[in-house]
Write a structure and sequence with these properties.
alpha+beta; two-stranded antiparallel sheet
Length: 114
């Protein structure tokens, strides 16, 4: 949803504007009340999404995410954070999860059965 948090410069109160319906979706509220409203609204939207679609498996530019691919990306990040090489794009370890699996060399020692 295209929603924007709008602050009234004179009163300091907040209100939510929807760019989808080009209308307000809340009233003006003090900051504390508005924060509470945002939390309730986020929970309501998540509840509706779960009721409509159930729990959806994530998709990303990296393909379908699995526990094993998450473990791989975490291990790669940890390795890279300790690395001192300057040429990350050409690093042997910097590869896709699919390439890592295809090579069959589990050098990060991650659980590939998850």
């Amino acid at each position: 949803m295209g929603r924007c948090n709008i602050k009234n410069r004179k009163t300091g109160q907040w209100r939510c504007w929807s760019t989808i319906i080009d209308d307000w979706v809340s009233e003006w509220m003090p900051e504390h009340d508005y924060k509470e409203w945002l939390i309730v609204e986020a929970a309501r939207m998540m509840r509706e999404e779960l009721e409509t679609f159930g729990i959806r498996e994530p998709r990303s530019m990296l393909g379908t995410m699995t526990a094993s691919s998450c473990n791989y990306h975490k291990a790669l990040e940890e390795y890279c954070s300790d690395c001192c090489h300057d040429d990350c794009d050409n690093c042997y370890y910097n590869k896709s999860f699919e390439s890592y699996i295809a090579e069959g060399n589990n050098y990060f020692n991650i659980d590939l059965e998850e």
